Structures
1.
Amino acid sequence: MLVKVDKIIEGSKIKVVELDIDNYGSVIPLRELELKLPKDDSIIKVLSSTEYAAIFTEGEIDEGATIILANSVSLDELNEEKKRAIDAMNKK
């Protein structure tokens, strides 16, 4: 899932906003989530150094799932995804 990182809480949880990109290239905030961070410092480092990230979780999202993988997403990469969404819509 694509998220905007809000803030890390006490080193064990993180607040994020789940995002989606619509057919017109607009970034849509879907919902705010509070997720658990694993003991893995590399995931915490990735999330603390980026504004946007692609994350994978384990467990129920609504019950505070645990992040198991996180990759930073740069603003350029986000803009490229927006362009792809627009291009896909124009091909229809």
Note: The two ends are 25 Å apart (CA to CA).
2.
Amino acid sequence: MEEKNRLIKEIIELIDKNGSSKTDINPNYLEYFEMEDLIDMKDGLLRNSEDFKKDNNNFLDEIFSKCS
């Protein structure tokens, strides 16, 4: 259960990037998630974050090249 709680905490941190919103997960739902499901959620959020960073970098590079 400790590993499950750690994964849930990591997922919440990935969802709440800027720290301004409070994300709560109802503890009653936790029993429905298997470790594999939580790991998949975390991996998906990490991939989304990386994709966002790449897209953002490309956009900023494009703006920079237009301004130079």
Note: The longest helix spans residues 35-67.
3.
Amino acid sequence: MKKLLIFSLLCTLGVSLFAQNSSKKNKNHYFVFIDDTSFVASMPEQGATLTAFFKNDTLYKIKTWFGFNFGDVTREYFYWNDTLSLILETQKMYASTAVPKINPDSIKAHYTGRYIFKKGKLTDISQKGNYSISDTPSTKAETEATFMMLSDKYRKVAYAKAKKKKNRTKVTE
């Protein structure tokens, strides 16, 4: 009986210490949100947003959204040790000017793409569906160059915005 009591006390103490440590881990998780023209050459008809997620002041994800009259494009850039490692792309085709207004969340993706990078090089591409956005090149080398250029541009904008603590929004889990 005494061993059971000691075991349960140790378990309770261990769980409470783990809970305290995990709440400290989330202390420096935040994101910055940009919905102006600071990261695009020209604003699409329905707008554009960039959300950058940080852990301990290190960028780990950027999510961009571009809204056009014919649909939208979402790209998620994932980083490991501040180096691009993965891009997930989703395109949805719909008439954004339709009446009544269409809920974009109800539309299935027309195209999905996964681009894997290792040490700054595009190593693998996986695509499903029909690609329709004409601004991205078709060869692997051109795709790599375009995504690396966009990634670098978005990283710089995200870090610049995150420098001011007033621009940060704490991530709550």
Note: The longest strand covers residues 58-68.
4.
Amino acid sequence: MKKPLKEFTEEELSAAFGSDLSEEERDQLIAAEGDSIFDPVEEAAFHSNLRQSGQAVQTQAAAAVPALPPSVKAGMEQAMQAALKEKAAADAAFQKQAEAAYQPPVPKMVPKEKKFNFSALLGLAGACAALAIGAYWYVNFTGQSGSGMTMAKSARILTPGPVTGFSDPVFTWQAENGGAVDIRILDKGKVVAGIETVFSPIALDKLGTGLNLEPGKAYTFQVLSPEKTLAEKSFAISKDAAVGGPVREPTLEGVIRQCENYIAQNRPADAWMLWSKLTDPEKQDERMKALKERIMALIG
């Protein structure tokens, strides 16, 4: 079973690296490799083979290989010390990098023997880029969002008009292909309300923000697709605006009178807010069709 070198028993150290190591050399080895993970059995077999190979090396006369000259041995020892210091510095740098890269909820540090997998990171980045490109192509060329919803490619804002007489206006627009849009309300460039993937009309209270539009104050209404702003219009709440949104009369005759009053006040967009509240069967009434044409011509 693999474990850190510093956890080897005396017997495992002797079996793995030989009993001829001095105490100082053993301490140096543990200091340099103490946190590295080894298998005692594999290390013992590996170093045993090395020792056997060394013992088998003899001269042609079967004489033992002569000892290394002192100067050569000293040079080898210096090289070994330099290598150990370099290895210790590399281990410290790797440990620091691993600690900096650590993020919850990872329960423990990445094992020292595992290096950071840059190939996997590049592969993930490439996959994300391909997904983003694919989503962009899908929306732009199919007109659908990732959920399969058809999205508008162009739109024209109908209401509110430049000034509306309601504190809770109804937001309406025409999408060229009848697709869904995202909408936003801005106050001096700051988004104060919004909703995604909706169809006209939308009342202010449907945005679910509890937003109160202040009388006499100007705002901006934006209609957007996932890629761009399709239409934008500034509007203001009149100083004498009625609280809430347009409330229709119960009869079609009453609705017609209401719309005529708004038109007379130069508020055709408010008339269209009211008209949009009709039921589908009511919108098919010939009188309401004619009223629609008149209002749309005034809105422009």
Note: Confidence is low (pLDDT under 50) at residues 57-62, 106-112, 127-142.
